[in-house]
Amino acid sequence: MTKATIAGALAVDTALDVLFGDGNSIRFEDCWLRDHCRCSSCYHSDTFQRANHILEIPDATILNIESNETQIDVEWSDNHKSTYTAEFLSKFDYKTWKESKRLKPVLWHGDISDKIAKVHVDEFLKSVDGAKHVFQSLLDYGVALIEGVGVSEEATEEVCKALGGVQHTIFGGMWKFTTRADHADTAYTNLPLAAHNDNTYFTEAAGLQILHCLEHTNGTGGETILVDGFYGANQLKQELPEDFKFLTTFNVEAEYIEEGHHHTYSAPVIRVDNDTGDLVQIRFNVYDRAAMAFRNSNDCRSYYRSLRSLAKHYENINNQWRFKLKPGTVMAMDNFRVLHGRTGFSGSRVLCGSYVARSDWLDRARALALIQ
Ligand SMILES: C[N+](C)(C)CCCC[C@H](N)C(=O)O
Ligand SMILES: O=C(O)CCC(=O)C(=O)O
Ligand SMILES: [Fe+2]
């Protein structure tokens, strides 16, 4: 991108029209300008925080402006003076600003083993390029594999920390699970699990789920199933827009119950960004649906019809990627997007892993300059 320059500025009533060197023009309201003054009494540049309460910001008007190619100086009716650089102002064109914040998931179906990142653990932990590769894969496909990891909970924990940090829940921080019923949940059995998102009963579901199969001996099955929740939702939107609409607006309740715990949360199964229409989150889990009452017959029937319409995409074998997790390979997936499951199994199968909060893995991706 070329450096932003100012071609002209014109005060109009209660706003300032700024014309940039590239021909683009942006209107800034005076209340916005005053709030965005970056002088040391308005902004702590060492903490990147505003210095004043919103009620303290004076309702001043613009008295005078002076501009050159690189900045605009504003003199206010209360004698305050502000300077805005071309660089700063140019970032606040609504369209490009909004666009710059959008994630650009690459929708997929079927086997994506040749598309996603498969990065050696040393490269992931010790090099910026390795870390970027993993996080870019999580942003694009919602899946990444980290290979060559020590077959232990400790080695897995190091990876979880680097992915954003271990998130503590009722299941613990780092968890290890097998067929022993440590928690009242089907994950702790050898039964098959159809593709689902975890934590539909939390006010905020885990951002990433990380799984490392430490052992599977004396048995068969236990294949991992992954499916892109956004791909299925998008297919539904095209084929049955009414069902899609219903799932974006109707609150489906989920719950998790065990001794001493009762989590419940009610929200749409498909969450979209109201401005862009972008898919934000899929909250699909057929097992953890709570028993619900319905306002009327229509809602009740729409619930079953639309959930089944969506489920067909997730259960479609052509949309799923199935593979066997091997000791030494850590899988990380975006629990806001990618559904996971497993086939039933026999023998001794031990997995460990953790959740990572969405805020924390996106923080890492932002620190690596992969997103804004
Ligand atoms: C991952 N871990 C083994 C800790 C627990 C799984 C929780 C399972 C729960 N039914 C859900 O889908 O959220
Ligand atoms: O056993 C597996 O591979 C996954 C089980 C599961 O769904 C979970 O732990 O959340
Ligand atoms: Fe799960």
Automatic annotation (TrEMBL):
Its cofactor is Fe(2+); L-ascorbate. The lineage of its organism: Eukaryota, Metazoa, Ecdysozoa, Arthropoda, Hexapoda. It is an enzyme of class 1 (oxidoreductase). Belongs to the gamma-BBH/TMLD family. Residues 13-89 form the Gamma-butyrobetaine hydroxylase-like N-terminal domain. The keyword Metal-binding applies. Pfam families: GBBH-like_N, TauD. Its EC number is 1.14.11.8. GO terms for molecular function: iron ion binding; trimethyllysine dioxygenase activity. It catalyses: N(6),N(6),N(6)-trimethyl-L-lysine + 2-oxoglutarate + O2 = (3S)-3-hydroxy-N(6),N(6),N(6)-trimethyl-L-lysine + succinate + CO2. NCBIfam families: carnitine_TMLD. Residues 120-355 form the TauD/TfdA-like domain. Pathway: Amine and polyamine biosynthesis; carnitine biosynthesis. This is Trimethyllysine dioxygenase, mitochondrial. Converts trimethyllysine (TML) into hydroxytrimethyllysine (HTML). Keywords: Carnitine biosynthesis, Dioxygenase, Iron, Metal-binding, Oxidoreductase. One of its GO terms (biological process) is carnitine biosynthetic process. GO terms for cellular component: mitochondrion. The gene is LOC113506445. It comes from Trichoplusia ni (Cabbage looper).
